[in-house]
Design a protein that fits this description.
By secondary structure, the protein is of the alpha+beta class. It contains 3 helices and 10 strands; from the N terminus they run E-E-E-E-E-E-E-H-E-E-E-H-H. Strands 7-4-9-8 form a 4-stranded mixed sheet, sandwiched between helices.
């Protein structure tokens, strides 16, 4: 990194007040009144989210298993790693293990935690724990009610090409593809 003219302490905003504007099944929205480091009053609209877990199943031949599902905000079907929201009190590893089985039908003999990511830190508190699964065994899937998806198999090398060409757009999936490619020397 280049020269920085201030310390991080000089960047902090002070929260003056918070007001919950919406509480839903998946997240809550609050508006914070803040004071900037320069003393200016402003507002921040924040989505409070319990977090999630995403898992990339990779078999012995370096094939990945993704899910294709319709995503309403974008009005299209997208390719993603299996993922889900962490329930209150649930361990993210348990969430990842549950999602891989529900969405792809696989269980994994090995699940490795490969990091965490702030999905959209400008306005959302969601942290997604990232996992790579191996030693896969097909046991059959059970998607959640009203969850419509299909599993697709793709060589990791091809998934990396799809990520780089923009055919895969989902952030958590991109991060997992790049981490898996590095881990497996691709």
């Amino acid at each position: 990194m280049g020269k920085i003219d201030c310390t991080d302490d000089m960047l902090f905003e002070k929260t003056v007040s918070k007001e919950t504007k919406f509480t839903g099944r998946v997240f809550q929205v609050e508006v914070k009144t803040i004071t900037t480091p320069e003393g200016v009053t402003s507002h921040r609209e924040i989505v409070l989210h319990n977090g999630g877990a995403a898992i990339l199943p990779v078999d012995d031949e370096l094939n990945c298993y993704f899910v294709r599902q319709f995503r309403s905000p974008f009005e299209k079907v997208m390719t993603e790693s299996p993922a889900g929201k962490v329930e209150p009190g649930e361990d993210p590893l348990s969430c990842a293990a549950r999602e891989i089985t529900e969405e792809t039908g696989f269980t994994a003999g090995k699940i490795e935690h490969v990091g965490r990511m702030a999905a959209t830190p400008g306005y959302c508190s969601e942290i997604i724990n990232l996992y790579i699964a191996s030693d896969l065994h097909f046991t059959g899937g059970t998607p959640d009610p009203n969850e419509y998806l299909r599993t697709v198999k793709c060589p990791l090398k091809q998934a990396l090409e799809m990520a780089e060409s923009g055919k895969i757009e989902d952030a958590k999936t991109l991060v997992l593809i790049y981490k898996a490619a590095r881990r497996f020397g691709i």
